């Protein structure tokens, strides 16, 4: 690969169609096998998670369903690049947009998860003692971080689109790449803040083995809450790793080590998102926290709420 010209696959001549770039913007020729694995993975995940939504009425998983659809479309574009024409600009932009936007919906399910955990623990006398967590509202958690994700993703997509255009025209993409890096850096900072809140909740559960929640809450309920906290934490860390990867990749530039080797994309982008989606789909809050719904001896209902 030449750092000035860009990547050209000598075994795949450029068709020079009206929608083709002069180089392969990916930095490599996309793998057909990886695209097929991505398509199969997200088809199966979509079916499995949609079944959970209907079976458990776990509406917090709807964003994860949308994420699966976005990922599926993105990998279809990668399949077209690998099978038909890796030089086609529309294929590259389509896959980048969909695969970049999809984790926003995965993150939304993770934000909902923390919100539901806070709502569940809000009946605890431990949480009513004036702690910072006691002043959090699930909807505020959800919409604050979703809004930040939307803004950051818009910057990333806009920057990436201009980077692709300028690179294909052999123009300097530095300014556009700076926009992309700014969006990713802001997203990393936002997600760091979310992980801090999540860590505070983990600490609350870890340091209160007999958390005094609503009357009727048993050790089994606490075990399920702690289990779901682990699910949300691992999924959050995986999405964070994926975002860090994107940030470092962009900081290295279009022809850097990370952006020019598909193995990094497969392990730090696709694999992290697949595993996070599996975790959220198999252990939704409905399945793990419904046991916290209990009617005490006096007949008062204590229900898990998301508001």
TrEMBL record:
The record gives the membrane topology as: Multi-pass membrane protein
Principal subcellular localization: membrane
Keywords, ordered alphabetically: Membrane, Transmembrane, Transmembrane helix
- Keyword Membrane assigned to the entry: answer is yes
The answer to whether UniProt assigns keyword Transmembrane to this entry is yes
Source organism, top-level taxon: Eukaryota
Q: What residues form the membrane-spanning segments?
A: 23-51, 58-77, 89-119, 140-159, 179-206, 227-245, 265-283
The entry's cellular-component GO terms read: membrane
Subcellular location, in the record's words? Answer: Membrane
What is the protein named?
Answer: Uncharacterized protein
The scientific name of the source species is: Exophiala bonariae
Q: Name one Pfam family in it.
A: RTA1
Q: PANTHER family under this entry?
A: PROTEIN RTA1-RELATED (PTHR31465)
């Amino acid at each position: 690969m030449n750092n000035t010209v860009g990547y050209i696959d000598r075994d795949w001549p450029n068709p020079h169609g009206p929608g083709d770039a002069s180089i392969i913007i990916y930095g490599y020729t996309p793998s057909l096998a990886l695209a097929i694995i991505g398509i199969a993975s997200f088809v199966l995940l979509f079916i499995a998670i949609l079944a959970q939504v209907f079976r458990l009425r776990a509406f917090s998983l709807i964003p994860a369903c949308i994420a699966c659809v976005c990922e599926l479309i993105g990998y279809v574009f990668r399949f077209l690049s690998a099978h038909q024409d890796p030089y086609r600009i529309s294929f590259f932009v389509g896959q980048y947009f969909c695969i970049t936007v999809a984790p926003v919906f995965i993150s939304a399910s993770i934000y909902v998860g923390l919100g539901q955990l806070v709502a569940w623990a809000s009946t605890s006398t431990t949480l009513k003692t004036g702690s910072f967590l006691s002043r959090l509202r699930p909807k505020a958690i959800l919409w604050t971080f979703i809004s930040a994700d939307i803004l950051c993703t818009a910057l990333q997509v806009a920057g990436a689109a201009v980077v692709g255009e300028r690179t294909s025209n052999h123009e300097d993409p530095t300014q556009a790449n700076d926009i992309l890096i700014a969006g990713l850096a802001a997203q990393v900072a936002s997600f760091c803040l979310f992980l801090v809140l999540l860590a505070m909740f983990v600490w609350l559960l870890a340091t209160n083995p007999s958390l005094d929640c609503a009357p009727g809450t048993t050790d089994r309920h606490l075990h399920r809450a702690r289990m779901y906290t682990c699910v949300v934490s691992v999924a959050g860390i995986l999405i964070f790793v994926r975002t860090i990867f994107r940030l470092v990749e962009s900081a290295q530039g279009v022809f850097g080590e990370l952006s020019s080797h598909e193995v990094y994309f497969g392990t730090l982008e696709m694999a992290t998102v697949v595993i996070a989606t599996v975790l959220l789909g198999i252990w939704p809050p409905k399945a793990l926290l419904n046991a916290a719904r209990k009617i005490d001896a006096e007949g008062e209902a204590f229900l898990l709420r998301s508001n």
